[in-house]
Amino acid sequence: MKYTLLIIMLCLSFKCFAQTGKYVLVIHGGAGTILKSQMTKEKEQQYTKGLNDALEAGKKILANGGTAMDAVVAAIKVLEDNPLFNAGKGAVFTNEGKNEMDAAIMDGSNLKAGSVAGVTTIKNPITAARAVMDKSEHVMMVGKGAEKFAQQQGCTIVDPSYFFTEERWRSLQQIRAEDSSKMLLDHDSAKALLKQPGNKDYKYGTVGCVALDMNGNLAAGTSTGGMTNKKFGRVGDAPVIGAGTYANNATCAISCTGWGEFYIRLVMAKTISDRMEFGYQALADATNEMVMKQLGALGGDGGLIAVDKDGNIAMPFNTEGMYRAYITGNGKTEVKIFKD
């Protein structure tokens, strides 16, 4: 009897030990020409608090043995509700003066995924993406159809005016003025203007989250308002599974941010996973190759966050900064904005 109790106690202790420190949560709030010299202390504190709030929402779930999927949704909802970030409440405006949002989520345990694109009335697009994954046989839904489905599944629907923010509206007017100016320039002058640092800061941005839970399952999610002044129903990489969002328990979970067209062309997230699975590359090597070399070689910029099946973290970016943060089960937390 004494030995039986000892064995039970050892097993319980081992179970607790095995779970302690096994979860990881990583988030991002977009990449760009983010310079300390151009940001007020107050603004920096606001961004830092926003990232910490998202971390805490995801941590509560993971620390209590919850799933990576639930943690990803919880963290992204906090970022979507924060007007500082280009997703949900802080979404940028299209050329027509509308807010059109995209989101995606993927479960690494079974490769199930869901996404929505071009939605205008869903308060938290990441919840609609999950509904597509969990409650339909589809992967992607767009526009009015996605909104109708989301409403049927109980997602919160709001009037489009909910997404209006004065700062994003001013950004639209600014870029409209710049685009008008570029029309008066010759081709070479226009190209030079486009390459000037800072011109793209307010054009695009994204939020995202990747997580590893105590059961060893990975999940990834991404949400965005897209590109300021976008036309003709443009959709970026965020809702494209394998481009801006991907998760596979055999390799890693990834959420991207940056110039979406280039991420789509590189099939960024899936290519990193393939490099790990078939090329036997480590997470750091695979992500650095794609972001620091191949993305820039095409003329694109941005970054990504990733966590692999062993809990290793990567957060590469080829811009001046990226809003990023992570927390692990052993208590380590880091929040960063600028390039170190």
UniProtKB/TrEMBL annotation:
Biological processes per GO annotation: proteolysis
What UniProt keywords are attached to this protein's entry?
A: Autocatalytic cleavage, Hydrolase, Protease, Signal
Signal peptide positions (record): 1-18
Q: Which residues bind substrate?
A: R234, V235, G236, D237, T257, G258, W259, G260
Question: Is Ligase among this UniProt entry's keywords?
Answer: no
Kindly give the Pfam families that the UniProt entry links to this protein. Answer: Asparaginase_2
Please list the residues that make up the active site.
T206 (nucleophile)
InterPro entries xrefs: Ntn_hydrolases_N, Peptidase_T2
SUPFAM superfamilies documented for this protein:
N-terminal nucleophile aminohydrolases (Ntn hydrolases) (SSF56235)
Q: Please, which domain of life does this record's source organism belong to? A: Bacteria
As one GO molecular function, the record gives: hydrolase activity, acting on carbon-nitrogen (but not peptide) bonds, in linear amides
Swiss-Prot/TrEMBL site (Cleavage) positions: G205, T206
PANTHER family reported in the protein's UniProt record: L-ASPARAGINASE, N(4)-(BETA-N-ACETYLGLUCOSAMINYL)-L-ASPARAGINASE
What protein name does the entry list?
Isoaspartyl peptidase
**Species, as recorded:** Panacibacter microcysteis
